[in-house]
Write a structure and sequence with these properties.
Structural class: alpha/beta
Radius of gyration: 15 Å
Distance between the termini: 27 Å
Family: Belongs to the arginase family. Agmatinase subfamily.
InterPro entries: Ureohydrolase, Ureohydrolase_dom_sf, Ureohydrolase_Mn_BS
Number of domains: 1
Protein name: SPEB protein
Organism: Pampusana beccarii (Western bronze ground-dove)
GO biological process, one term: putrescine biosynthetic process from arginine, via agmatine
Shape: globular
Oligomer: single chain
Length: about 190
């Protein structure tokens, strides 16, 4: 997808069919800002707008990889007040995320789940081709653990956003994004892999 604002109308459509959704949100930013430059809908607000519209199921939102700059001095407070499970990047450093995903699986149960993956959730050493870089992010291996850890859940949609190939002359960000999208397709219900 494009910038993260596209997730909001997608969640509106998916929730219209499936009801309130679980959300697995991988990102450097919480995307719960109220406004920027006077606008309520922008790449830093899709999660807040989705909560306000009743699109997300209480207790079924997990945010992984959050860190860095924000529009608010307490960027995780809004989500925590809404019952989100917030996993800052520092809690992921230097370890496998397989145990975390076991907990996420138990938390989600059979809730219809949407996966929204912002490429800036990854460290810019791996994915520099994005507009809001934040150091000390996730590794590609951890990204695979997150996505593969969702296999068997009731996934009803997914996106990968904020890839800006013109900011990465190596092409690594686009390659990584394409591979993560392929991995998401492989964990959709009914998809068989060898």
């Amino acid at each position: 997808g494009g910038d993260h604002s596209i997730t909001y109308p997608i969640l509106q459509a998916v929730a219209e069919k499936h009801g309130p959704l679980g959300l697995l949100h991988v990102d450097a930013h919480a995307d719960t800002a109220e406004r920027a430059l006077g606008e309520r809908i922008f790449h830093g607000s899709p999660v807040r707008r989705s909560v306000q519209d009743g699109l997300l199921a209480r207790g079924k939102v997990v945010q992984i990889g959050l860190r860095g700059s924000a529009y608010d001095p307490q960027p995780y407070k809004y989500g925590q007040e809404q019952g989100f499970r917030v996993v800052p990047a520092e809690q992921c450093w230097g370890k496998s995320l397989v145990p975390l995903l076991r907990e996420v699986r138990a938390q989600m149960g059979d809730q219809p789940l949407y996966i929204s993956f912002d490429i800036d959730g990854l460290d810019p050493a791996y994915a520099p081709g994005t507009g809001t870089l934040e150091i000390a992010g996730l590794t590609p291996a951890q990204a695979l653990e997150i996505i593969r850890g969702c296999k068997g859940l009731n996934i009803v949609g997914c996106d990968l956003v904020e890839v800006a190939p013109m900011y990465d002359v190596s092409g690594n960000t686009a390659l990584l994004g394409a591979n993560l999208l392929f991995e998401m397709l492989c964990v959709l219900p009914g998809v068989t892999t060898r």
